[in-house]
């Protein structure tokens, strides 16, 4: 008797707990709302990249403040995955299968978390625009629902190397790279470009994420007598490399990726040593005075948290989703995922704060049907943290 | 009631009818669970929980029962995941063979790590295991054979003609294995082996004088623990269907240890509750700002004293506080609380 | 040859900050048999507090750094008094876990307050200014770290050996009950030990922060310092310093000649090998537990 009543209470409790949500997953669009999701690390060692996801949020706030898109507001679901793919997957499933669902995924920081959820999103044909990493996995092979924006790390490496060899006359190019997908793509790009000039990398030194002492790495580069060093590293490691090189009186031309192109930050944490470093950039700089950037800056002042920094990661997060907002606008009131994907495919020569973005109708053999931007330009860091533009937009393919 | 009259009563799986009853209730609940939850993501969460339960059972055999600390279980987890996928892709083994084989490989590594551990204790052992956990991921990440840092994608998962392509299918596999392994763990600790483990934990020299073969049982504890963890790793590879060496960090090892401690050192039920609770917290604490009252309070606190951009880090604080509080006030963890509650109610109302 | 000497030099330079962390951990382990995994994060809190007063409140260096050390001292005392002392079953395992818990709390607090953007601590000496002799180099900051590590080691050694307080610490370690019967306030000894240790760790943190400063900056130095301390024997101060230098030098030689990829793990491999031969480390006496 007693057991039975306990059981009944338990069953009732269980029902209460689980009947809270409704069983049907929707496609994320209601009469007044469009639900868009994103993951980005806010905790853990990768947390500096979390600014990308927060930047996206401010852009959406701005769009909403301007009246939304055809009468609908964007509801933005950003969650912290700590750069842990298992948590990314858990969060994506939770949001995607919630009662409202997610219409499309914006950006999403990191290669490993993105790779973990790529197939899941593909199997449901949920659109996903602008993964925040320049990995080739997004468009090779192309996938119908996935639109890459970030120009490949590979191309950044090619562009920088070409500039070093052709314009600066460097012969002994070396690279220091983070020992992962990001770094390896940089090595591949530099190798390929050098091969076309009949050169080779004089040294390629891997750096582990946890390394806190780069002396032996730099010693290897000095021994190889490199006159140009590409730094395919995180900002902290890149600064440490430049500093250590200075301490050992080793002064090659340093070049680095768009990841390290936040010059005010780099000058600050390197205490001025970042001056003269050349980096690639895939979008207008936060300090540029273009009208669009000024408008975003105003939105930043209005919506961002007080201690937020107006940096490259933050504006990149806005830039990655510009084509998405454009396609949502073009799709009109009658919004479905199919319609949205069609509109994305129609985007040609789109110009926001990033470079020129174009997509094509889906072609399984053509990565460029799903990789929007290929161009980068090169900038040089000045002593006060400003940038001097060295080249126009370059498509290094 | 609780007095045992014979040895067989002590080792019996269910020592009372009530326990048997509750066991079947639990089983029924586990079978029904995926059908009563509102969405698939709860099943995914349950899968992660099941996997963590297996790890924690294994880790508890080592830490809770044998008293040997390990800060390197993410390493075994990693080995299990990689070995399973590699055996399937390169050796063409079916999953059903590859998974136990991977667990055995992991157990072998556990045995090898157990050898130096024979002479080590306390800080010495913790740094040795920690070093193992960090090194193994580096070694795997270096080898192109294992996909290097680009990671590996898992192949199709089939058992006979059963194609496990949804979370639901996988749920039954993972939960089935978890139940089996739980019963196995319980049997291990209730029998000769388990008593030897506990004797070693209480005092290894005293254990030796009473005839416990230290070499054998210590390495066995490591191997068994690694076997469980490796098996869980093999399952984990198929939850995500993508693995990458940097996923298996020191933080992961620490979380595993936290699960053991929170649940209760040296308790099977504790392993389960600890794994379930910490997994749930780890996945759900990011919603902390949406809890009524507390969320608002945390938000104002962040704005006036801390920063709103770093507010997600509260999850570390909550997790750390739970671990500290449990260790300080109730070293047996949730299981200890349960025992206390039981004792209190037994004599109620006196 | 020049390269070899340079690697030795770099190894000693980086070993110094490991040595400071190792010393801090050994101090605590020596008196209370607690392996303090929160050591790095205790230093982290001090570093970020220093950053706060330097960068936002405009304190001068000569005020900020002593204040940081005093803060570290009280933080250490507080943690011992508020948490460690309250533990119900103070065995090695539960103490390790408590310190891991403290570590998570402190890490969370710092990241919550300061966000994740990389920073650098303002410092009177430029972190990358160096002495150059031919091709050899060593930075001013490294020399400072080296000197401080040695000075702190020697003074701690003298302190423990020749002062009443040091004797009391030793007595506490060997037999807390007997020490208490002899009139030593064991609790207070433990508390102050934690304070001193936190101070030493704080110095290490302040010397690392001019080059790297982020919430995760102390993980690697703490682990390496711990590794060095274990290598030298957890109960010996000179052992900890020697172990830390061995770790630093081996790392650099390995990184220079063999592979930079495994540089960060080679220390752990050596430790396992050494411990197999000498289970209590290089310089500590092997201590056999009596039943």
**Mean pLDDT level of chain B:** 89
Rounded radius of gyration of chain B (Å): 21 Å
| Shape call of chain B | globular
Mean pLDDT of chain A, nearest integer? Answer: 88
- The CATH class of the largest domain in chain A is Alpha Beta
SSE arrangement of chain A, N to C: HEHEHEHEEHEHEHEHEHEHHHEEEEE
Strand fraction of chain B? under 5%
Please outline the major beta sheet of chain B.
Answer: 2 strands, antiparallel
Task: State the total count of DSSP E strands of chain B.
Answer: 4
CATH architecture classification name of chain B: Orthogonal Bundle
**What is the string of SSEs of chain B from the N terminus onward?**
HHHHHHEEEHHHHEHHHHH
How are strands sequenced across the largest beta sheet of chain B? Answer: 1-4
- The residue ranges of chain B in which pLDDT falls below 50 over 5 or more consecutive positions are none
Q: What's the quaternary structure here?
A: heterotrimer
Look at the structure and name the CATH superfamily of the largest domain in chain A: Response regulator
Greatest interface and its residue counts?
Answer: B-C, 55 and 52 residues
Roughly what fraction of the amino acids of chain A lie in strands? 15-25%
CATH topology of chain B: ABC transporter involved in vitamin B12 uptake, BtuC
């Amino acid at each position: 008797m007693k057991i039975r009543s306990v059981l009944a209470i338990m069953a009732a409790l269980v029902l209460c707990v689980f009947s809270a949500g409704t069983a049907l997953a929707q496609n994320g669009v209601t009469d007044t709302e469009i639900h868009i999701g994103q993951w980005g690390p806010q905790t853990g060692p990768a947390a500096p990249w979390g600014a990308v996801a927060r930047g996206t949020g401010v852009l959406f706030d701005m769009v909403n403040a301007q009246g939304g898109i055809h009468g609908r507001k964007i509801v933005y679901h950003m969650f912290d995955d700590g750069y842990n793919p298992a948590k990314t997957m858990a969060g994506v499933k939770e949001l995607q299968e919630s009662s409202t669902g997610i219409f499309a995924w914006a950006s999403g920081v990191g290669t490993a978390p993105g790779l973990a959820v790529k197939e899941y999103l593909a199997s449901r044909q949920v659109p996903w625009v602008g993964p925040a990493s320049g990995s080739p996995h997004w468009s090779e092979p192309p996938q119908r629902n996935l639109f890459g924006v970030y120009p490949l790390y590979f191309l950044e490496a090619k562009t920088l190397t070409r500039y070093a060899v052709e314009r600066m006359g460097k012969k002994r190019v070396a690279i220091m790279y983070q020992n992962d997908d990001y770094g390896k793509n940089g090595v591949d790009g530099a190798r390929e470009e050098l091969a076309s000039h009949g050169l080779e990398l004089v040294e390629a030194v891997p750096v582990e994420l946890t390394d806190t002492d780069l002396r032996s790495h730099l010693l290897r580069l000095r021994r190889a007598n490199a006159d140009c060093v590409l730094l395919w590293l995180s900002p902290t490691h890149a600064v440490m490399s430049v500093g250590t090189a200075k301490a050992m009186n080793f002064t090659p031309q340093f070049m680095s990726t768009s990841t390290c192109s936040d010059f005010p930050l780099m000058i600050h944490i390197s205490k001025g040593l970042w001056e003269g470093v050349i980096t690639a950039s895939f979008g207008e700089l936060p300090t540029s005075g273009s009208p669009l950037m000024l408008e975003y800056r105003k939105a930043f002042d209005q919506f961002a948290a007080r201690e937020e920094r107006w940096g490259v990661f933050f504006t990149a997060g806005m830039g990655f989703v510009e084509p998405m907002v454009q396609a949502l606008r073009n799709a009109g009131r009658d919004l479905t995922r199919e319609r949205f994907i069609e509109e994305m495919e129609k985007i040609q020569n789109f110009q926001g704060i990033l470079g020129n973005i174009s997509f094509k109708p889906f072609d399984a053999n053509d990565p460029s049907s799903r990789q929007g931007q290929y161009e980068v330009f090169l900038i040089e860091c000045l002593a006060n943290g400003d940038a001097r533009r060295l080249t126009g937009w370059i498509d290094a393919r | 009631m609780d007095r045992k009259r014979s040895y067989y009563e002590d080792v019996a799986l269910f020592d009372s009818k009530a326990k048997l009853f509750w066991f079947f209730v639990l089983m029924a609940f586990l079978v029904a669970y995926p059908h009563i939850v509102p969405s698939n993501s709860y099943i995914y969460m349950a899968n992660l929980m099941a996997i963590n339960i297996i790890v924690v059972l294994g880790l508890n055999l080592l830490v809770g029962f044998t008293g040997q600390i390990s800060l390197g279980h993410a390493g075994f987890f990693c080995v299990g995941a990689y070995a399973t996928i590699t055996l399937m892709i390169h050796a063409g083994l079916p999953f059903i063979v590859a998974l136990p084989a991977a667990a055995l490989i992991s157990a072998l590594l556990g045995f090898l790590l157990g050898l130096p551990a024979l002479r080590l204790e306390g800080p010495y052992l913790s740094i040795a295991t920690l070093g193992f956990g960090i090194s193994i991921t580096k070694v795997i990440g270096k080898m192109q054979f294992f996909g290097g840092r680009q990671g590996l994608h898992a192949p199709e998962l089939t058992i006979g003609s059963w194609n496990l392509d949804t979370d639901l299918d996988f749920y039954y596999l993972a939960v089935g294995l978890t139940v089996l392994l739980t019963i196995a763990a319980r049997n291990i600790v209730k029998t000769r082996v388990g008593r030897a483990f506990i004797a070693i934990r209480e005092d290894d020299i005293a254990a030796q004088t009473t005839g416990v073969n230290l070499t054998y049982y210590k390495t066995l504890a490591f191997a068994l623990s690694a076997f469980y963890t490796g098996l869980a790793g093999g399952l984990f590879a198929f939850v995500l269907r993508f693995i990458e060496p940097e996923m298996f960090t020191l933080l992961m090892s620490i979380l595993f240890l936290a699960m053991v401690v929170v649940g209760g050192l040296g308790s099977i039920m504790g392993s389960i509750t600890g794994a379930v609770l910490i997994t749930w917290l780890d996945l759900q604490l990011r919603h902390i700002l949406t809890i009524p009252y507390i969320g608002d309070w945390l938000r104002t606190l962040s704005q006036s004293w801390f920063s709103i951009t770093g507010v997600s880090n509260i999850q570390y604080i909550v997790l750390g506080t739970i671990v500290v509080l449990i260790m300080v006030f109730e070293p047996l963890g949730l299981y200890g609380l349960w025992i206390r509650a039981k004792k209190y109610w037994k004599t109620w109302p006196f | 040859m020049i390269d070899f000497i340079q690697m030795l030099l770099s190894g000693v330079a980086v070993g110094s900050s490991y040595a400071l962390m190792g010393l801090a951990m050994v101090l605590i382990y020596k008196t209370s048999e607690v392996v303090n995994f929160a050591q790095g994060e205790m230093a982290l809190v001090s570093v970020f507090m220093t950053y706060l007063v330097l960068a936002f409140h405009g304190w001068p260096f000569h005020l900020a750094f002593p204040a940081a050390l005093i803060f570290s001292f009280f933080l250490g005392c507080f943690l011992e008094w508020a948490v460690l002392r309250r533990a119900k079953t103070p065995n090695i395992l539960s103490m390790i876990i408590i310190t891991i818990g403290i570590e998570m709390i402190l890490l969370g607090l710092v990241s919550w307050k300061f966000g994740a953007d990389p920073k650098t601590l303002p410092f009177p000496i430029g972190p990358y200014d160096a002495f150059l002799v031919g091709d050899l180099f060593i930075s001013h900051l490294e020399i400072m770290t080296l000197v401080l590590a040695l000075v702190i080691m020697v003074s701690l050694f003298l302190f423990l050996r020749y002062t009443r307080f040091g004797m009391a610490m030793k007595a506490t370690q060997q037999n807390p009950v007997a020490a208490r019967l002899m009139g030593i306030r064991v609790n207070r000894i433990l508390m102050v030990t934690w304070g001193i240790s936190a101070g030493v760790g704080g110095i290490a943190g302040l010397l690392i922060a001019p080059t790297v400063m982020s919430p995760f900056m102390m993980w690697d130095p703490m682990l390496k310092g711990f590794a060095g301390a274990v290598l030298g024997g957890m109960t010996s101060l000179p052992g900890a310093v020697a172990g830390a230098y061995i770790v630093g030098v081996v790392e650099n030689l390995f990184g220079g000649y063999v592979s930079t990829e495994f540089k960060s793990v080679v220390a752990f491999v050596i430790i396992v090998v050494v411990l197999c031969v000498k289970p209590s480390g290089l310089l500590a006496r092997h201590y056999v537990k009596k039943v």
